[in-house]
Design goal:
Chain lengths: 287, 348
């Protein structure tokens, strides 16, 4: 790569503006805290997420000092499950969105740079994909798949989340490709691939990063929905969605099985969106 | 100039057409010219005369809907740039032919330091290490007269002044010591004093490197300063070609005369500051060139023949050519001089 690093030039200015945004900074603190306790779950969680503590005495206990988030019908500690579930839910969301950002960027970049008939065909394909309701598409794929592995879930979520990114990238590339510095780069001997990857893509890094950050929140919600419906993350893995599923038969009686993973989902998504919005404002000071 | 040395760049019958909604636009329509090693050729013309499009087409940088018509030929040092494969073309771009653009504000990539952008030209063409390329970039920046070059190299384009940015562009174009530099309006966007500095720098570098320069401008004063030979373009064609002294002393084509008179200065004949002469009308759109001579409806001397018959490039001497029927019928040149034509001469 041509030398550009996060501490240089435009990035430093973005960070300076981001820091002044209190909501975004609060979101950043919250998401870092959630990520830290999730990653550190084996250290901070009181129990193993799948430990069956006492099927008789500790079945479906309300929150107490010993079990702050209560226990589930299999007598497992819900706090531990929420912490371990955070690892799975966040990892799936981040990996799926990285997949989506990579695919979407490549697809959109080629479409926008090449233009013409290829662009027409590629963009009609994304239009068609965007016209299918996403949750319906995901439900169908996951249901057909049976019991998807975590890797399969990442792929399914990632490969259905890139359409928006590709349209964004295509529009940005189209706007940039006729700039004089692109002509200048070609005039001095740069190949098309070189112009696209080394000149154009770095120029659209900030909108892609913003879209990716906002997309992560969305994927957290989608994964939770799929897991709640039983077609997402499968046992033995805990995820925020399937913990809620464990209490779905008696939501009113076993409220702690919905409330605590629900709070985790809501606070993670709000924090991620706050960070994404903050990034967008910091990257584009005109807004 | 036209002795035994073969030309470095030879353009023959270059035609460039843009497909537009209003029909094909013949932006460049049969230009033939040659640039010899070490010389500076000026291309002069108004906006719309096709000069910038021609500059881009030399390195095949025209993109659809524009295209180079079959039959056009651009030969650089024996290689046909119109038909050669892309790899050979890329090896020429930046290494054998450098190019500088008009707008130093927009011709540099905003997200990379200028040092990176100069070093990148080296890396694209030569196997080298990043450190070596960087060192050469800084040295080149120093050579184009940027003070504190090592610090400037680490700055981004928006942190530099227009003049410095244009020096960076020159450094990018010249770092591999090309045999030919194409400079498209290199000083138009700059202050007059900076303009003079850049032109002086260009002349120095040219002397030192022995390269040829194809300088495209709308400004005859710039041509007078640096060029040895001038080609005047109008309506996508070369209308007059002459050594620079001859062009200023004895312009033949009425369009060239008009351009010379449109330079704001005291009238050389009356010795006092006269009214600023203008050439009536504007350059017609490239989709609808007039019949015959493309200048005829703006020309004070035009007669029937000019409307009906496209003038060939008449050779006035070994070095002077003009695309005007007055070369064949000099007696027609009796009408009012170009200085008054805007006010007194009825349009044909």
């Amino acid at each position: 790569m041509i030398g550009w690093s996060l501490d240089a030039g435009p990035w430093r200015a973005i960070w300076r503006r981001f820091r002044r945004n209190r909501g975004a900074m609060a979101g950043l603190v919250v998401i870092i805290a959630i990520a830290a306790v999730s990653i550190g779950a084996p250290l901070v969680a009181p129990y193993s997420p799948n430990a069956i503590l006492d099927m008789v005495a500790l079945k479906s206990q309300a929150p107490s000092l010993a079990h702050p988030f209560g226990t589930d019908p299999a007598s497992r500690d819900v706090l531990s499950r929420v912490l371990f579930g955070g690892r799975v839910s966040l990892a799936i969301a981040v990996l799926a969105m990285l997949t989506a950002a990579t695919v979407g960027t490549m697809y959109g970049a080629i479409s926008g740079y090449v233009g013409g008939v290829l662009d027409d065909v590629l963009m009609r394909v994304t239009d068609a994909c965007l016209s299918i309701p996403r949750i319906l598409l995901l439900l169908t794929i996951c249901a057909l798949w049976g019991r998807p592995s975590l890797g399969a879930l990442v792929l399914v979520l990632g490969l259905t989340s890139w359409f928006g990114v590709s349209r964004l990238v295509r529009a940005e590339i189209m706007a940039l490709r006729t700039r004089e510095w692109v002509v200048a780069a070609r005039a001095l001997g740069a190949s098309d691939a070189h112009v696209l990857f080394r000149h154009l893509l770095p120029n659209i890094a900030s909108p892609v990063i913003v879209a990716t950050a906002l997309g992560i929140g969305n994927v957290v919600l989608l994964e939770a929905g799929l897991s709640y419906l039983g077609v997402g993350v499968q046992p033995p893995f805990a995820s925020w969605g399937n913990i809620m599923q464990d209490g779905a038969d008696e939501v009113r009686a076993l409220w702690w099985l919905s409330v605590f993973p629900g709070l985790a989902i809501v606070s993670a998504v709000i924090a991620i969106n706050a960070v994404g919005d903050g990034l967008r404002e910091a990257a584009d000071p005109r807004q | 100039m036209t002795g035994a040395t073969p030309p470095l760049l030879s353009i023959r019958d270059l035609r460039i057409v843009f497909a537009t909604a209003a029909g094909p636009a013949r932006a460049v329509d049969g230009v033939t010219l040659a640039v010899y090693p070490g010389e500076t050729v000026g291309i002069v013309g108004e906006s719309g005369s096709g000069k910038s499009v021609m500059a881009l087409s030399i390195l095949r940088l025209i993109r659809p809907p524009g295209r180079i018509e079959p039959g056009s030929s651009v030969t650089f040092d024996g290689l046909d740039l119109v038909s050669c494969d892309v790899t050979s073309l890329r090896a020429i771009r930046g290494r054998r032919i450098g190019m500088v653009f008009q707008e130093p504000m927009t011709a540099l990539n905003p997200v990379f330091t200028v040092g990176d952008q100069i070093a990148e030209v080296i890396r694209v063409h030569e196997p080298t290490t990043n450190a070596a390329a960087w060192a050469r970039a800084v040295a080149m920046l120093r050579a184009v007269g940027v003070p504190a070059a090592a610090d400037r190299a680490r700055q981004y384009p928006h942190e530099l002044s227009g003049g410095t940015r244009q020096r960076v562009m020159l450094a990018m174009a010249l770092v591999l010591r090309p045999g030919l530099l194409i400079a498209d309006e290199p000083t138009t966007a700059l202050d007059v004093t900076v303009q003079a500095q850049i032109l002086a720098l260009l002349a120095d570098l040219q002397q030192e490197m022995g390269m040829a320069v194809l300088l495209i401008t709308h400004d005859l004063a710039i041509v007078a300063t640096v060029a040895s030979r001038v080609i005047v373009m109008y309506g996508g064609q070369a209308v007059e070609e002459a050594p620079v002294e001859e062009l200023f002393a004895a312009a033949h084509h009425p369009y060239t005369e008009g351009l010379l008179r449109a330079i704001p200065r005291p009238d050389p004949e009356s010795g006092r500051a006269g009214r600023l002469a203008v050439i009536p009308g504007t350059v017609p759109p490239a989709t609808a060139w007039p019949s015959g001579c493309r200048f005829h409806d703006r020309c004070p001397f035009a007669w029937d023949r000019c409307r009906d018959e496209m003038p060939p490039l008449y050779a006035l001497s070994a070095t002077h050519a003009s695309r005007c029927h007055l070369a064949a019928e000099p007696a027609r040149r009796t009408a009012p001089r170009a200085g008054e034509m805007a006010h007194t001469e009825p349009r044909s």
